[in-house]
Amino acid sequence: MLSLFQNSHNPQINLEIVVENRWVDIVKEGFDFGVRLGRDVAIEMIAVQISDSLKMVLVASPDYIAENGAPKTIEELSHHRLIGMWISTQHGSELPWEFKVKKETVKFIPRPQFSINNHLRTQAVLDGLGIAWLPQMGDVQNYLDRGELVELLPKNAMVYDPFYLYYPSRQGYSNAFQLVVNTLKSI
């Protein structure tokens, strides 16, 4: 996606990307726009859907499963090596994993052997280091399709709202800003 903005058609666009796992007041913090999961934005913001729903899946490598077996229930996860996702908060915390059980959402607080706050979680799973809860999109989907990752507990996979681009409802957008908005809407 980033390559769409850095090719010869968009030389006037300079991106500053800040990834946060918290609510960001884009006006107060000086950003032109934000991207978030779900349409829950302030009333003075414009929200534009830029993705389909997001499915989170529990995955492991075939090597990990061959060596350790696969959990058959959510409770069995506590007996496996887990790869968590650290959330940047004042005190720090582990991102809970959510699953669907019948029509209820069940939260599981992982006790991971280690936590990673970016795409290296996927590489750690591919390397057979443990089980992780990852978004089924992009590279993760490709690894699943090729059999390099295996989905665990598929009946309990969680589906979330789509991603939305949000920005202030003000007049006077620059051409570069409008180009970014239109590009993200077209993906």
Task: Give the topology, please.
Elements: E1 34-37, E2 45-49, E3 54-60, H1 62-68, E4 82-84, E5 86-87, E6 93-94, E7 97-101, E8 104-108, E9 114-115, H2 120-126, E10 131-135, H3 138-146, E11 150-152, E12 158-160, E13 163-168, H4 175-186
Parallel strand pairs: 4-9, 4-10
Antiparallel strand pairs: 1-13, 2-13, 3-10, 3-11, 3-12, 5-6, 7-8
Pfam families: LysR_substrate (PF03466)
Domain LysR substrate-binding: 9-185
Family: Belongs to the LysR transcriptional regulatory family.
Write a structural description.
GO terms for molecular function: DNA-binding transcription factor activity; sequence-specific DNA binding. Pfam families: LysR_substrate. InterPro entries: LysR-type_TF_proteobact-type, LysR_subst-bd. One of its GO terms (biological process) is DNA-templated transcription. Belongs to the LysR transcriptional regulatory family. With 187 residues, the protein is of the alpha+beta class. It has two domains: 2-50 and 161-186, D-Maltodextrin-Binding Protein, domain 2 (3-Layer(aba) Sandwich), CATH 3.40.190.10; 54-160, D-Maltodextrin-Binding Protein, domain 2. Helix content is 19%, strand content 28%. The model has no long low-confidence stretch (mean pLDDT 83). It has four helices and 13 strands. The radius of gyration is 19 Å and the shape is elongated. Strands 3, 4, 9, 10, 11 and 12 form a six-stranded mixed sheet that branches. β5 and β6 form a beta hairpin. The protein starts with 33 loop residues before the first strand and ends with a helix.
